[in-house]
Amino acid sequence: MAGLSFAVGRGEVLGLLGPNGAGKSTTMKIIAGFLAPSAGTVHVGDVDMSRQPIIAKRQIGYLAEGAPAYQEMTTLGFLRFVAAARGLKGAHIDRAVRRMVELIHLEQVIHQTIETLSKGFRRRVGLAQALLHDAPILILDEPTDGLDPNQKYEVRSLIRDMAADKAIVLSTHLLEEVDALCTRALVVAAGRIVADGTPLALRARSRWHNAVTMIVEGEAAETLRPHLNAQFGDQRVEIQPTSLEVTATPVPAMAITVFAAPDELGKGLSPQHVAEALQSMGRNQGWRTLGLYVDPGRLDDVFRDLTIRAQERT
Question: What is the number of helices (H) and of strands (E) in the chain?
Fold first, then answer.
């Protein structure tokens, strides 16, 4: 890691993104006080982690990579153990554990040992222990890893519900999770921050941002490539064969895409103008239009570009 510096405030959900080996888990271990940094500091509010680690850690709920737990303990025993370690006592332990069991839906595995649980339930138990003491800061390393689609939906809903009152940092390799959860995303590659912004701002860096695609039935669109190139520029037009299942038999079609040129927007080449021009062309040619849309930009496109360039510079 080199010069990695950022702050997360209450009400923010920060997604930490990066390729394998970029340092996401290491960063989260340092923030949570599990690892000591070789240089620099971590501040939890006004508390310096290196000088007052116990006070700092009380404010953090941490789901570590792989959701480690004591394998021989039951789910109930493990959660009660963690609650006690967090300083809860007596009836407070019972209330906290009961709340987590209901919130994370652990009723059916409450008396099973951790070693007998599926990967999805182990992850849910790990999330429950991170939330037990209602910490204002959550550090979640791959919180939905191993969960089925229904479980992912539940966990994402839970995180969204908590977000207004907490500062949340989560790592993920699922770009869909950035859109579903994050108010901000940090892309890390080769030990450095290569992008920091809202999901919308990151999408705007994509080649596909504001690209207009019209899908027309048949293959006649290819014959108009010279006209399309002349109107929009040959570097900005892409025509690809596709098909749509509008009937029992897939219908052959062509996807005409015109990529936006940001420096030319407002000069007759805005997405709206491009869409209107394509529609006019389609009417003149008698095409049957099957679809028309403006692409918001693709996070996978931006992620790949940023991380590959960062690795090439090392």
Answer: 11, 12
Please list the residues that pair with 140 across neighbouring strands.
63, 170
The Cβ of residue 249 has, within 10 Å, a number of other Cβ atoms equal to 8
- For residue 284, the cross-strand partners are none
Q: What's the pTM?
A: 0.85
DSSP element (H, E) containing 63: strand 60-63
User: Tokens representing 54?
Assistant: 């116990």
CA separation for the pair 63, 59 (Å, rounded) = 14
Nearest Cα to Cα of residue 76 among 2, 24, 132, 139: 132
Task: Please name which of 111, 125, 151, 155 lies closest in space to residue 63, comparing C-alpha atoms.
Answer: 125
DSSP-derived secondary structure letter, 241 = E
Contact 147, 162 (CB under 8 A): no
Q: What is the mean pLDDT of residues 107-131?
A: 95
- pLDDT of 251 over the 90 cut: no
Q: How far apart are CA 242 and CA 256, in angstroms?
A: 10
168 Cβ partners below 8 Å, 6+ apart? 8, 12, 13, 14, 137, 138, 140, 159, 162
